[in-house]
Amino acid sequence: MQVKTQLEDFENYLADASNLKGGHCQKLFVPETSGEISEILRGANEAAIPVTISGARTGTVGGAIPFGGYVISLEKLNKIEEIRKVELTAIVQPGVILSDFQKVVEAENLFYPPDPTEWSCQIGGTIATNASGARSFKYGATRNYVQHLKIVLANGENLELKRGEIRGGTDGIINLITEQGNSIKINVPTYKRPNVRKNVSGYFSEEGLDAIDLFIGSEGTLGVITEIKFSVLPKPEGFFSGIVFFSSEENLLSLVSEVRDLSFANRTSHVANTLNASLIEYFDANSLEFIREKFPETPKNMTGAIFFEQETNAESEDGLLEDWNELLEKHGADLDRSWFTTTETDREKMRAFRHALPVAVNERISRHNQKKVGTDMAVPDENFAGFLRFYKQMLRASGLDYVIFGHIGDNHLHANILPKNDLEAEKARHLYGRSIAQAIMLGGTISAEHGIGKLKSKYLNVMMGERYLNEMAGIKKAFDPKGILGRNNMFDAKLLG
Known about the structure:
By secondary structure, the protein is an alpha+beta fold. It folds into three domains: about 1-75, Uridine Diphospho-n-acetylenolpyruvylglucosamine Reductase, domain 2 (2-Layer Sandwich), CATH 3.30.43.10; about 80-235, 2-Layer Sandwich (Uridine Diphospho-n-acetylenolpyruvylglucosamine Reductase, domain 3), CATH 3.30.465.10; about 240-440, Vanillyl-alcohol Oxidase, Chain A, domain 3, CATH 3.40.462. It contains 13 helices and 20 strands. The strands form five sheets. A seven-stranded antiparallel sheet has the order 17-14-16-15-19-20-18, sandwiched between helices. The chain has a five-stranded antiparallel sheet with strand order 5-6-12-8-9. Helix 8 (about 285-290) crosses helix 10 and helix 11 runs antiparallel to helix 12 (about 420-440). The longest helix is centred in the C-terminal third of the chain and has 24 residues, at about 345-365. The chain starts with a strand and ends in an 18-residue tail after the last helix.
């Protein structure tokens, strides 16, 4: 195990993709085993020293940034331990890079669906944030694939959780026993989660809560995950992808609505070889202007575009291509200037098109020495069109540069505001606050996929209120009585008493 105490040796571990300033710590630990993690936490807990868990630090909400205490980096716990093709499972350590895991799984003719934008993230980070991405429209978030976790708790004790084994009873209590024989009693939270397709705001809750789900999306506040067993799927045989351009936003939104309805209906009824999109992504007109810097062939004067994918096989491909063509014609897509493919090479180019936008945005904002202000809200189906209008009217009136893009199939778009100076940055933060308030008013969530971290904790307070934050704090205290793990992630440490 490496232990580093000099700033020059751990400076890179004091920041993440949020650009939150001021990170500092006493020591960096780089363990190679679960036992070493137990040893570190045991000592830290006895001395009440805060501990921040560090993965690849690709998060955007400051969760991996320490403000004192110790940092534990999981980068050396990076083994893909086993792929079981017959069982359709994989056992991995938390420091495995997501893209590496997906490549290994694909080489076995299998498929792991979660696909957050930042492919260089670590598996442990995807558990901590319940990561999703574009394919969550069909396949859901990371939670759907986690079957078994090995965890080290704040006091160094070990806990194993298997899906379906331990659930909240009718009394609203979950009872857990550590490997060392100690009992932990959890009061299942009573709050109802927003009726949205994606939500990572606060600890998970549902009737009959599975204990494993408390740790998925807990942002490093309840324990350190040291091993994960995932379920995986057979690799789809083929696909049909398209980036479709529109001159009318009304037509674009009507297409999304029908594709969403058809996909859900066909998925629910398990009808084979029917229209069933695996992803539906959106780009507004400003996004297309940004992308044109990398892809000059992008058509001009479009109001927006949709990127979709449909899985196919040899039997269904021709019929599905015809179904999609009819649907796109019906909704007024500019088929002559749109792009379609069934080849892997062109599919990767389309994915590069999607990923070029965040890169272009970051390049633009860095030229002005500012930080983008990006939203991560999602709202219920019936309120989505109104929320998108709110975004556009507010941002157009502001006079600030912006782009709107993202997971329109899940009613989850990112509005990135791009200030050019400090005055515009202050105005952008005010617009962000207005967006938060609007999303909450519409029954939505303040974070659909990026998490809360340290940057959004005050907004979680607004969304959930004091009573429910105190329920979360009660869960935290049950697992981590001294509050050493992920201090000030999700909620203020003062709530822990």
